[in-house]
Fold these 4 entries.
Entry 1:
Amino acid sequence: MEKYLTKRKFSDSSEASNVDFSKHSRVEINLPDLPLDPGMRTRILDYDPNVRDEVRRAYLLKGPCQPNSHEFPYTLFGKKPRRFNVAWFNVKEYSTWLEYSVTQNAVYCLYCYLFKPYVGAQGGGDTFVSVGFENWGHKEKLNQHVGGFKSVHNQAWSKCKDLLNNKQRVDVAFAKHLTQSSIDYDIRLDASIDCIRFLLRQGLAFRGHDESETSANRGNFIELLQFLADHNQSIKDVTFNNAPLNLKLTSPDIQKDIVHAAAIETTKLIINDIGECFFSLLVDESRDISLKEQMSVVLRYVDVEGRVIERFLGIEHVPNTAAIILKETLDNLFSRHGLSISSLRGQGYDGASNMKGELGGLKTLILNENASAYYIHCFSHQLQLTLVAVAKNNSKIVSLFVLLTNVVNVVGDSCKRLDRLREQQASKVIEALGLGEIISGRGLNQETFLIKPGDTRWGSHYGTLISMITLFPSVLDVLEIITEDGATPEQKCEADMLINSLQTFDFIFSLHFMKKLLGITNELSQALQRKDQDIVNAMNLVRICKMQLQNLRDSGWDSMLTQTTLFCKKHEIEVCNMDAMFLLPGRSRRKYPKMTNLHYYRVELFYDVIDLQRTELESRFSETSTKLLLFMACLNPNNSFAAFDKNKLIQLARLYPNDFSDMDLEILNDQLETYILDMLNSSEFLNLNGFGDLAQKMVETKRDKVFSMVYLLIKFALTLPVSTATVEISFSAMKIVKNRIRNKMGDQWMNDNLVAYIEKKVFADVANQDISNMFDKMKTRRRP
């Protein structure tokens, strides 16, 4: 045998040891993480031969990297600066293969990257594969690269088509006479897609514990497909026992591939709908059931009909919420979908402080790259939650809310204790009425209860503070009952510790202080979460809120101390001597700075927390963002365009220097005068309600073409994320899709489920045939 076969020679023993001759060996690669930028890709020949076709197919399905909205830099050629012409992307001969690398400022060929063999300098050598073409003054080089019918480029193009077209494979060509088998396959695949479509729209699980024929719990997918087969004879004839053993299209891998294909087609519709429109970015992060940090990304834009659209783009797993990590993750997501940061015209975040920080946050990183991506506080999120989170930077405020949560949990632990709390409160109300301390009347002295503070329940913290102050004596009575009648020694001990903690000046002062602080911002928080935003009034409330905080800092200390002292005396709690030395319980005097109680409560607590709130409001409602919103309010069509102000709208346009040149501003100045006269004298523009109605009516009457610059300002006003809850909806959906039972879902699997579940309306427009075609292109299938 050795006479006819040549033994393979290894250069060293390490090379021989690394060779895996097992026929089951397989190299795994994460296809979604493949770099989209052609200047950052690994050579196709450097991939393992077993995965090259998968990599090629993944890149072909993504399409060429064409960042249309990128600000292409100039390069000096001789004495003349030149840059890449974005119009080349739309040239028929180049549109399917021409790619631009943002990192290298050069263009490449997708087809040649995937299949070009080494043929020396033919077809430009490796210029369009690894080096990159950047001679912008010689467009004819692109035509030379394409070449004739037998060129290297066209041969590579032919191989790309063959790879994606399963029907053209040799084994399929030999089986063309099996027409009926092909029809059966299509029916079987279509039935599987229908079942998966139903489960995705409902957010239901797919798998069962045992999917064998004798199992009573085969999972939703198999059971639904069986139901469909029982009620449709044509499906029954080609599924389950009537299908080939290796082509039933019911395995878990097949299910995941179909879901992935559905998510790709759904996202493709969203990206196509955005097109070249400007959009705003909404980002938030949250932990899923398996305690993994997930970043939800939503885009807000105005479609061709003038409607405001918010679309869920995806969930991205992030190792931590550091701003630089979030920015890198966002860049990768944008690259995968062919989006550009330069198209951003607004950004809104809620949650982690590093996502809104002025110095190092994600907001600032994006603003450094695109100054027109203005940050606007996400109005639909309760501002109160953020202010509580900011206040918790002070350790004493953290202790306050931890203690309140413990009290609510202990007192509200059972129906029996809640009944006792109601009884105690009712008896005290009757006693107060008898003494004339309170009056009776319709709607007064209604039954109340302790409200549990929750980070996802808007207004709950303020409600907790109010209810605690109102029910304070009744809460103490219930805790005393627990110390005597508790079921276990632990319950008695816990209740006794809570009584001691509640009856301190420290707790009472923090309780009344935070109640006062959140009371100042409560009206603003309520106004900001209304759907029908009145921007002018909202900004006035922001200004008033800042003034109230400043007044509280300047002259509110004495009244706060008096209020706390009166409450303590009423409930027989020892009042703190402000001139005595402060000693934090549990700390050594040597390890804590020497200060009086007055200094601690006034400076370390009172001033410190107020300053944190003012800084937060300034960050969320900076002078620039406030001006931006007030200027945009001048476009409001309510009350016959009563808010219209041409000068402010010109100032608004100046905030977008990349979209309005000096010449455009002159044109806009004249256009605004004609625009307002037309609006006031056109009956169809009377009785409009908000920017949304105005934009849609302008598109309907073709005024968006006549007053194109004014319409652009209206689109910017609509694009800014002043009122949205889509990000929070995505987290609610995540808890439905990835629940306790499905806590081991992978990131890509969860993302695919969420895209189809959240964007149900878009998913409904995706045809089964499109999903089927994408499913066939994703892998080499045994399609008859």
Note: Residues 213 and 240 are 9 Å apart (CA to CA).
Entry 2:
Amino acid sequence: MSVLLLEAFNGGSHKQLLDLLQETVEDCVSFTLPAKKWHWRARTSALYFMQAVPASSLYRVLFTSSVLNLAELVALRPDLGRLKKVLYFHENQLVYPVRKSQERDFQYGYNQILSCLVADVVAFNSSFNMESFLSSISTFMKTMPDHRPKDLDRLIRPKCRVLHFPIRFPEVTRFLPAHKRLRHSERHVNIYSQAAQHHTDTSVPSETESHEEKLQKEGLQSTSLAPGLEASQNQPACRQCDEGEKPRPLHIVWPHRWIEAVHCGCYPLCPNTLVYPEIFPATYLYSTPEQLCKKLQHFCKRPQLVRQHVTQVNISTFSWETLKDEFKSLLRADCDMISTEQHTS
């Protein structure tokens, strides 16, 4: 039990990451709270974990997401404060969308800043997430009426790094049209050949049949234009085009998981802002609503452009096989620790 995994909101991507770590990291133990009542988890989970986590001399590393107020936990449990503390940001509360800035609850962003100050390593799932957080700290603290702390971003930045959210991509090749299968297979070879440089075990993880059946039932024979253009990916649709029959219309979807949507054959069409430029080449981005509308009209008139297109996105960068070693290294107690003295000097 040298690695202590804590998750105050164990659902969605938070649970997905925790499950991957539990499967891969030896000698770990986890404590979680269900993924509901997010606001109360952010406010009170430290008090829960204070009582739920038993004392142990075996702990060496503590890994948690930024939902937990790490500063409160360390104050309540000084024994955990001596561990290597790793904080992972799925999102940050300084720029998380709200209708009006007046509606932003100061406490949640403040909790995340405090957590960063006591953490030894702060990992973000994207450069945008990291930079938007660090660059917003000064403005965020100006909402305090007086006695505002200064230069907190300079204390936090040396601890920060980007570590993409890892995805275990399912095998969906058999659902794709013939012209996309070769490229898709090459991607899988690339993912596992990269992993082979770091692992002796290069076996492809097996996927459950129920998941593949679900993909088939839910129509992942369609290719999405992400905010959503999706073209039909099944073989009959391709034959219709070849035989000169009237082609089926494009399907437009808005997937919640983009890097997965592309893996399943979707054509991404994303705003040229936020994290999207980090992931997608410029050809898949639009800058204005007018550009989006024009692209959609163009593809709807010529659906074969989407159906025949093989998306040029390097999804292997975000695969679990590629990122596994980085996460394992992050959770080693012998990694270089960033001392408080280094940040204050």
Note: The chain has a mean pLDDT of 81.
Entry 3:
Amino acid sequence: MSFVQRVRAQADRYGHQRSYTFVEDRRGELAESRLTFAELDERARSVGAWLAGRRMTDQTALLLYPAGLEFLAVFLGCLYSRVIAVPSPLPQTDPRALERAEGIIKDADVRLVLTDSANQGMLTRWLRDVGLDGAVECVATDTQLLPGPDDWTMPEIEPDTLAYMQYTSGSTSEPRGVMLTHANLLHNEQEIWRAIGSPKEGVGVGWLPHYHDMGLIGMLLQPIYAGGDLYFASPIAFVMRPALWLEMISRYRAGYTVAPNFAYEWCAARVTDEQVAGLDLSSLRFALNGAEPVRTGTLRAMVRRFGAAGFSEKAWAPAYGMAEATLVITATPIGHGALVRRFDAGALERHEAIPSEDGVELVGCGRPISMSVRVVDPGTRAVMPEGRVAEIWVRGESVARGYWQREEATGDAFHGRTADGDGPFLRTGDLGFLLDGELYVTGRIKDVIIVNGRNLYPQDLEEAARQVHPSLGAAAAFGIEAGQAAGEHVVLVQEVRERSLGDSSAAEVARRVQGELARVFGLPSMSVVLVERGGVGKTTSGKIQRSRTRDLLLGESLPVVHAELAAGLTAHAVPEAAHAVPEGA
């Protein structure tokens, strides 16, 4: 079976009984646009017939759309016509997004850009400015005269037919096109469906970007696979007014939602008492938390803030996944709640997970549903026993075909074999351990900071630093080589909201961060660089780009507010910058 066959069967089964509804917040009033499953299928068939008429079979098409129903219809239209859809952020005026889109066009051999009429002019001008207008055509599908849905003919689509490409967000490397097949889509949607309790009907609510794996697979495609309704808004609307997300859950009686950790944190911090008073979140039984480290503080803050409104700690469903495995690898089953355990910090630095009553807290990311997960020493390729930290390896039907036109990278990542020859496995590049069947993720291999033989996880440093003062935001921790005499140093680049410093100075806050990290992690020699908001590099999905932030620091390109440099750290390691003050000055 192909994913197209599944979608068409669901459209036949539910017709106008199930639907997708895009919700817009207009000065506190919710405006709705809706497509039923039957209407969505008709629109997809029209788009598919049009693409087939352009002889686009097995060609790539870059989809640059704002949030809404048109993207979903066109994405399915690409599947219907065996066109390889490449979802990507709408670049608009962000230079980094423009560079990313240009890189994808060249990497994926794109000749057709699909968008809506509101953005066609801007994109056409941009293609001309970068010299691609002669090779790439930009078409607005919402005003295009399309054939009727009955003009569509089902092409030959097998389970291993390439369905679409998901470009990775590039937190530790250049974005790569992950090749996903129809079989990958079907299998991972089945994994998600089983995690949420295999419902025969249900309501989902979300706002995630449609161009990321979590938004596309976990939010947009799951309802038509499972046969449920979806109400969704734009990411911009959520960021501007986070209460909108919770109001939608309350209004539409949603049973499940999906989001990264920062979104729940944003709600706990920004939703007002008046807004909380009007909520009823008791319908929510499954709140997936994934795509970035799950923080225990966030779990507790949400229950504390919204418990009276019906948000239950049993709704928490931490999960682990990645684009190379379509999306979900492990998940917490519905109704179980998050599993939080404490582990000895010193043992974790030695890559051992030893439970300890007064240790650091880690949140379990659930268990494999049907995928096979191993923890493997990346050097010896020996499979580690439970409680040992090493690289997470994965095998199963959700694992992608590989990276587009990158044979060497595909071989390295997708063809892993253990010391005894078992495989192939997807090598995730993530560190973690299994304990009592539960997967705990501790960080990225490339991000681990090694100081005097100790393995420090940057997210632990970053989280501890953020708790020091309410003015502190995103952070990136990394190690730098400071010369033979000084050795390696830990550097923390920390965003600060200067307006929120209150009676404290930037220098005082930076020194408090140094002191807290020295106390918690035994790091008497480290540097703290406070930067303006936006100074810490992030991917389009919000993940911290530590290596990019490090490069910007060394290239003197960060908007430095204040720097407390550790004794012995020279300007060759961290260049002198405006407002930078050596420690003790």
Note: Residues 243 and 271 are 6 Å apart (CA to CA).
Entry 4:
Amino acid sequence: MIAASRIVSVLRLLRPLRWPIAAVAILTVLLTLADWSSTAETARLREQGQNRLNVYASSLRNAIERYDALPVVLSTHPDIMALLRKPDGPGLRDRINRYLALSNNDTRSTVLYLLDAEGVTLAASNWETPQSYVGKNYAFRPYFLQAKEGRAGHFYGVGFTTHQPGYFLSYPVRDANKVIGVVVAKINLDMVEREWPRGGGPILVADSNGIVFLSNAPELKWRALAPLPAEMLRYIADTHQYGERREFAVLGLSDREPLDVGVERAELDLGGTSRSVLVQRMALGGVGWHLVALNDLAPVRQAVRHTLIGALFALLALASLLLYWRQYRRRMLDRLQASTELRHTQTVLEREVALRGGELAETQLRLQRETAERQKLEARLRIAHDKLLHAGKLAVLGQMTTALVRELGQPLAAVRVLTHALRGAPELAEGTRTHLDGIGVQAKRIAALTTRLGAYARRSDDRVGPVLLHGVIDNAVLLLETQIRHQQVRLDLDQPDARVRVSGNPAQLEQLLVNLLRNALDAVRTSPQPVIRVSVQRSGPRVQISIGDNGPGIAEPALATLFDPFSAPDGGSERLGLGLVTAKAIAGDCGGRLSAMNQTEGGAMFVLELSVVDWTP
């Protein structure tokens, strides 16, 4: 009893302070929510930035490792050893020039060249161009000095002759234990840079000097991550690593706040405008480079703002409910007190309570309906989230496909170079040369297939222009050649005029034809003698591409909604899903028209009509 009275006394003393206490409590809750929201959003941005760094680092490693073995393979060629021993040998220099030009064309490098022990170029793949390396001395270049010491050389810089940046790989040519020459391969990394999207924030690649030489933001290239000491500037000038460029503006990062190892928050100043960014770094082992990701922190501020607005609305709703409850409780007490004085007042109070009870029941019913609507909305959000996850998996699968195609490029290039080198050996039998020719043809065929897979995985630039229809159809058939052979499908191609050009986008038309051919392959899966017919017929300024099969055909009720999203009937095949919606959209973008019908002899037929570019009346 005494304790209860003390509590009542304390509450009475605190009553004048109830509003300041409530304000402090509300402010504390808001600050806690803001900090939680900022921390969660920053963690999300860090994970997103780390994933981007991993993807970009993988693509950069693949581009470099693809050519790692090229100088090593070239250094074993017997003619190169003979030329280094006798630089004035009759016909050797011309033969090596042509061999390097052919190898450069097969491997898609930039330049291949051979230096003697003094750094003078004896032969080069660009020997017939105005910017030929032949006769030039590159003894001052670090990659020559590294190979001269008997090890593989690596160097990124601006070409001394062409003034074009590139990555140089070198390897020594030994005669016994003596280095008598150096084979050098120059590759261009701009193709990797062009594949990096601009969205998601800038990505920088800096060399061991701390100078940015690759970036998806051109305004950040050739900047230094930190001020360069005088010794480093003298080294850059002596080696001509960056051509005639001698000064490098420092990347404007200020107010740095370390968050973790390799992660910090800073202010980025570009062109007089400043913004907060999340800076993440990753070392690229083996070459002394490191990647830097700059993610804008605007989403963090936006997430905090949304969290605070939601919390304020929730507090206002809670305050409204408390006020309503307080008023309701006060009325109930007043009526209970009045019931002891007048009986008729009790009757009125009962009616009022019944009325308020009805309002509460109606409110409860409304809340139940709102709860049901919210549950439906949550279910839709879960479905949308699953679709987004699936889309992310497909994007990673596309990147993995591109990386796999690039990985196959290196061994294929080595096989073709070694085959060509072995075929030139005079002591081989004629039958062995025939086998080597067969190996070269099969390697070229695999290279063509991987090239088409890489082109099909890359994103289209959506440009429309003249397209050779014969090539698009052949590429689509090439991509599905394995599935056609596995299903033992007879493919009839009727292309009377191989020179027809149509208006469209090559990648999109190729995707459209792949979708239609896959639908046909699905349709003939249960046919005893599956046949797919592809026919091209030109009529004036238009051309029709017909793709027919001898499958079960399309149900008549489904023809009307065939090109609607998610219109596949129960038990239908995947060829009646979103693939046809995409195909029809591509046909419209190219100014064409796509239709479907059932053939009288059985099976379905899709007809694609496009405009001929080179038609004249």
Note: Residues 569-577 have pLDDT under 50 and may be disordered.
